[in-house]
């Protein structure tokens, strides 16, 4: 009887796989219905560090194309203070010095603190460094570890968070990421940071509070930034018609080192991964700077050196929720044929405040007259993952298109984060963690097979 039962099960699985008859799984996990509200400004997570002109909102990001530089950013409130960063490696007690720059901005009736950015260069790979900011008044010391040298089998684990905000749920998401035993070494952030623009006149004090909230992670490991729509801060009705003003003053990225001409699209290499960051809210039509850049960038990706090709973009191309439905469609039409041609492993997006993972699918055959406009299974195509479930003030996206489309492998309306753990040139273990579970529990997992080195179907081979 056991054998018969198994043959029925296997037969069903074979049929399902062969015919691609239904969508994947819509999780039956039901999140408790409760409002997602911002933590008040006097919450302990927003506390200002003590001391005159103490640096706050400290965050770091990779400062070059290969992981031998780190941009350190911080804000001082009382006076400009020093732009200097003192730093030293774990094994050397002699301190070295790097000089940064200072900027600030006004937004309606708000004036920012003194925003410092300092790129520390010529670092050694795979080395723990301590760094000190606030020289001359109140100093604060943090540390980071540089990634290993770029190479095909360098293991590395990325965290993934999107649409974080600063609610009680955001705090849970960040804590779960910090406590996750998978131990992300750098965080790939897929856009929508503070949600300050949800407040009257885009109350920029909420940019400051977000910086203080996230510092417990952003000061210690690089967060790789993608611009979302909540970074636009475009409000001509109050005289603020310069897009991305708070974002570009507060967050510096190494866009020039990948030949980009704007901070919204760029690439970096970390360990065995080549990461391309795209901009949903900058022009991407033919002849635009972003289009030209991506066209030149993709042929430069050397899979012998960096087997894993990862793309970050805010607005998802494949999304079966009834939120932001098809907003990513125009960019998909422009770039999807390239992603298939160059065998992108995975595309991470945010924007939709829920979780979803796709099958490996593409939809590039349509030519206006042939009517071929349905996603099909494609082993050269990326997996698309929506990870916009950080837990911001706008709440969960829990309204899905029904039935679940065939291309959608798994979806669930819960807050959480994910990790992408590269083991070697062929295998990476991906796990999604919902906030209601224990830190080590995964709500969705997938072993990724590299599209260049091991382009097999993850579901039917090993
Ligand atoms: Fe968004």
In short:
The protein has six helices and 25 strands. By secondary structure, it is an alpha+beta fold. The protein has a domain of 238 residues: Metallo-dependent phosphatases (Purple Acid Phosphatase, chain A, domain 2, 4-Layer Sandwich), CATH 3.60.21.
Distance from N terminus to C terminus (CA atoms, Å) equals: 28 Å
Range of strand content: 25-35%
Named CATH topology of one domain: Purple Acid Phosphatase, chain A, domain 2
Average pLDDT confidence is: 94
Bound molecules: fe (ii) ion
**Sheet with the most strands, sense and barrel status:** 9 strands, mixed
Shape: globular
Which residue ranges are poorly predicted, with pLDDT under 50 across at least 5 consecutive positions? 1-21
Number of helices: 6
Topology:
Blueprint: H1 2-19, E1 25-26, E2 56-62, E3 70-76, E4 84-89, E5 96-99, E6 101-103, E7 106-107, E8 110-111, E9 114-120, E10 128-133, E11 140-145, E12 156-161, H2 168-179, E13 186-189, H3 205-218, E14 223-225, H4 245-250, E15 266-270, E16 273-277, H5 289-297, E17 308-312, H6 329-341, E18 346-349, E19 355-362, E20 376-377, E21 383-387, E22 408-412, E23 416-422, E24 427-434, E25 444-449
Parallel strand pairs: 1-22, 12-13, 13-14, 16-17, 17-18, 18-21
Antiparallel strand pairs: 2-3, 3-9, 4-5, 4-10, 6-9, 7-8, 10-11, 12-23, 15-16, 19-20, 19-21, 19-22, 23-24, 24-25
